[in-house]
Recover the amino acids of this structure.
């Protein structure tokens, strides 16, 4: 924005990085150019595989084995880091250029106390001696505003929470007063409130010390909140650069438009997340014994409408599922932990209930109990009037109601058996719980694959041969194979890139509209709830703190914790043009 | 990389992305690729094939009767007797060849038993935590607490000096290794999402364990089997060497080394050297196969 750009602190010109593989050299990044001015925060945004982390690792010369810089230069205060000797680089890293990684716990040595680790770094760069190390480490912890630095100093990393670990890592990075701070996904995996606290801390420290900073993230909204300028990377190239307001207001490149569109933001509708304007809600292509085969007659003009939330007539019918004072506690070495405490709720036929909370709130445990994978200590579950808790979870696999309640798992890589092809994974529930013959089963698997938009040829693939989005589809196809009445979804999109999240959320909505599925949608993201759910429960520390319709809770949250959750979510700048029914972005 | 590719819309016609690598490669093509990329494994397989041919061929391949003595005692290696002759004038080459079958059979039988029993114990201990797990753990610890060769000696001495008992003894001392590998593999996947999904799909617990979890322990298990085979060969020969198990005049590498050892000082080196080399070759073969074999049974190594 400034008319005369200040002299750059760090400058990367025409960077290309290749990786040696079995067959050939693969270029991971090419033609990357950017510079960083003192006091400026630059965001590098891209989805997985875009080359954003590789670019920065190349810059720091910490590429994995097999990777090398094939072209370009990296200028830092007159030195070309690409040609610098390893010895000089070691000196620069940490003292001048510091890095903060994702997974703070992994970045800390588990068998050394925090104080010693900070002391080591300080002594390495001659900022402290054996005698002053402890005091200096204490100051470093105070600088990142840790409440009780004395205690943290003597703690081992596993004794600290994730957010606290990330603060320690930041303290480590900043201990030697670097001039550039590089943060690679610093808050991925942290809760949204912790994310907010950590990002605010980083931003404050950057401002205080006038450092340059590079924030690498997949989250465009987060980058928009904390960066002065953003470069968007895709497929190893920079596709667009600009200020956050420019990127959101006037994205020039199709890829940026797609990314901006897919970024969840208040007031957006599900359809608007997709790059292309779709016709009315998809109908089943193949002949299906569906009671009402006519397509959704009215494309709802209200942008707040949620697909699949077709009102159910007959308000007095009994709920599909009712949970009564469910409680579950675990014994741990440090005492009893109440994972779920006296939780009651109901899910009505065809409705979608959101269950929101941060890690450790008990939401996933609740989901496992509802899916009958886990027994509660006390409390009952009634499904269509039948008491499910009468049969223990261990033997529930043979229960007559097993096909009626199914679950979609988060794709963290282990949702599909690594030894089974996609076809096998989808067919398994049919094989176990239906009497279909081999041929019928095969036809059914193909129909399921089609209904989740999975090309038939991918059915022969093993999970590691599928992308994250494709695995999510297999996961969903498996869950709906038995035509369940209730689908439990445990963070189904948390591990997916935003553009794929948009597609998968739409897919789930489509399926719900087609099949009149009731859902228990577990998520940490209130924006996802806004899009996908009719009602919402907010959980904290095993207890329900708020409940109501999505409209009520999100518009006027009654509980302070809900308000905290809502405030913590980064809100991207306004999107100038939203693709309407005839928006300009249709291809 | 492919994760960043724009996802097709649900229901949209997709043709471009499907042709990329069409159907997944078959198991055979995969095995061929692994072997091409691991020449060491290929060497291992070739040697194994050689050992198997010799084991099956046995007497048919041997130029002389391995048990027939002659006047030509303690002859140095020559064209007539490639590996020389022993104190009774028996042809060492024939004896080494014929011994292959017995030594490999003991090893394979012992490892098979150890693998099946160990995997079963490990799977149960890994899947059902609690009292049963503790019992199995203590049992394994008890076995591990002995010096294993001494334990094997004890078992053979107690049960009787037969080939079957060598097999059982070798199996017993190998059980803990399999149990530990399988227990760890089952434990880390017991609550994996795919195992939970299997329960949702109507699999009873035993099926989740047997069909979903146990096969995932296969890659590390094959490495264990391969290394263990070499070890078992050595162990069986070791027992025979000290006079347990196989009895003379049956040709067996361990006994032959033991008998030949007496003659090394007087210069008749070939008696111990050639059976020893055969033993080494067998151990070497099994060790070479390990990693390649793991890659073959692991579908995740398929691209």
């Amino acid at each position: 924005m400034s008319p005369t750009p200040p002299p750059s602190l760090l400058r990367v010109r025409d960077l290309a990085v290749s990786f040696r593989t079995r067959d050939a050299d693969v270029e991971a990044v090419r033609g990357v150019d950017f510079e960083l001015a003192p006091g400026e925060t630059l965001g590098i945004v891209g989805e997985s595989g875009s080359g954003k982390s590789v670019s920065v690792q190349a810059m720091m010369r910490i590429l994995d084995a097999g990777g090398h810089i094939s072209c370009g230069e990296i200028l830092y205060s007159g030195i070309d880091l690409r040609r610098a000797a390893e010895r000089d680089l070691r000196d620069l890293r940490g003292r001048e250029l510091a890095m903060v990684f994702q997974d703070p716990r992994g970045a800390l040595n588990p068998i050394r106390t925090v104080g010693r680790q900070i002391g080591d770094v300080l002594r390495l760069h001659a900022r402290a001696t054996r005698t002053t190390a402890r005091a200096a480490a204490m100051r470093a912890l105070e600088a990142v505003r840790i409440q009780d630095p004395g205690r943290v100093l003597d703690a081992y990393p596993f004794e600290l929470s994730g957010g606290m670990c990330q603060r320690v890592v930041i303290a480590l990075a900043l201990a030697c007063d670097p001039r550039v701070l590089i943060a690679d996904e610093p808050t991925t995996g942290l809760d949204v409130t912790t994310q907010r606290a950590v990002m605010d801390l980083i931003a404050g420290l950057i401002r205080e010390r006038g450092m340059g900073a590079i924030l690498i993230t997949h989250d465009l909204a987060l980058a928009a909140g904390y960066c002065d300028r953003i470069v968007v990377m895709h497929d190893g190239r920079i596709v667009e650069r600009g200020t956050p307001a420019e990127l959101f207001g006037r994205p020039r490149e199709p890829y940026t438009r797609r990314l901006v569109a897919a970024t969840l933001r208040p007031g957006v509708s599900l359809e608007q997340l997709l790059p292309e304007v779709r016709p009315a809600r998809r109908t089943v292509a193949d002949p299906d014994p569906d009671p009402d085969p006519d397509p959704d007659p009215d494309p709802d003009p209200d942008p707040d409408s949620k697909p699949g939330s077709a009102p159910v007539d007959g308000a007095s019918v009994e709920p599909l599922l009712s949970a009564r004072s469910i409680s579950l506690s675990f014994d741990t070495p440090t005492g009893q932990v109440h994972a779920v405490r006296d939780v009651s709720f109901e899910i009505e036929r065809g409705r979608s209930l959101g269950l929101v909370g941060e890690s450790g709130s008990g939401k996933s445990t609740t989901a496992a109990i509802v899916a009958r994978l886990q027994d509660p200590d006390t409390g009952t579950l009634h499904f269509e009037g039948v008491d499910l808790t009468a049969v223990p979870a261990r033997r529930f696999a043979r229960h007559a109601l097993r096909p009626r309640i199914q679950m979609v798992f988060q794709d963290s890589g282990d949702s599909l058996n690594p030894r089974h092809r996609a076809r096998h994974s989808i067919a398994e529930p049919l094989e176990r719980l239906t009497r279909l013959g081999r041929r019928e089963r095969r036809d059914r698997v193909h129909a399921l694959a089609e209904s989740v938009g999975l090309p038939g040829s991918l059915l022969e693939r093993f999970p590691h041969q599928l992308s994250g989005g494709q695995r999510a589809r297999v996961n969903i196809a498996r869950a709906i194979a038995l035509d369940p009445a209730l689908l439990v979804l445990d963070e189904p999109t948390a591990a997916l890139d935003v553009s794929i999240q948009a597609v998968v959320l739409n897919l789930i909505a489509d399926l719900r509209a087609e099949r009149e599925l009731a859902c228990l949608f577990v998520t940490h993201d209130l924006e996802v709830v806004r899009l996908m759910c009719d009602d919402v429960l907010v959980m904290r520390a095993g207890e329900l703190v708020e409940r109501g319709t999505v409209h009520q809770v999100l518009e006027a949250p009654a509980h302070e914790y809900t308000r905290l959750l809502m405030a913590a979510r980064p809100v991207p700048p306004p999107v100038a043009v939203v693709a309407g029914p005839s928006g300009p972005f249709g291809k | 990389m492919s994760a960043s590719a724009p996802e097709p819309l649900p229901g949209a016609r997709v043709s471009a992305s499907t042709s990329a690598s069409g159907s997944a490669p078959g198991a055979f093509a995969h095995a061929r690729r692994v072997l091409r990329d691991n020449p060491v494994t290929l060497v291992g397989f070739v040697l194994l094939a050689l050992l198997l041919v010799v084991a099956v061929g046995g007497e048919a391949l041997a130029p002389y009767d391995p048990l027939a003595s002659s006047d030509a005692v303690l002859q140095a290696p020559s064209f007539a007797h490639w590996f020389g002759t022993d104190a009774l004038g028996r042809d060492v080459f024939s004896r080494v060849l014929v011994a292959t079958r017995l030594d490999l059979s003991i090893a394979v039988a012992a490892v098979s038993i150890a693998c099946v029993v160990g995997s079963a114990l490990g799977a149960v201990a890994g899947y059902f935590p609690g009292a049963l797990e503790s019992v199995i753990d203590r049992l394994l610890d008890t076995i591990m607490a002995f010096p294993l060769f001494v334990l094997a000696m004890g078992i053979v001495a107690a049960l009787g000096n037969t080939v079957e008992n060598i097999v059982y003894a070798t199996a017993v001392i190998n059980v803990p290794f399999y149990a530990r590998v399988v227990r760890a593999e089952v434990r880390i996947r017991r609550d994996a999402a795919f195992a939970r999904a299997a329960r949702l799909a109507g699999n009873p617990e035993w099926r989740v364990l047997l069909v979903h979890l146990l096969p995932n322990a296969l890659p590390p298990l094959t490495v264990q089997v391969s290394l263990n085979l070499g070890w078992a060969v050595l162990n069986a020969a070791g027992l025979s060497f000290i006079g347990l198990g196989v009895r003379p005049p049956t040709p067996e590498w361990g006994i032959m080394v033991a008998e030949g050892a007496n003659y090394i000082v007087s210069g008749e080196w070939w008696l111990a050297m050639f059976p020893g080399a055969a033993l080494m070759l067998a151990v070497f073969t099994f060790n070479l196969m390990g990693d390649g074999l793991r890659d073959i049974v692991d579908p995740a190594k398929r691209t």
Notes: Residues 92-127 of chain B form the longest helix (36 residues). Chain B has eleven helices and no strands.
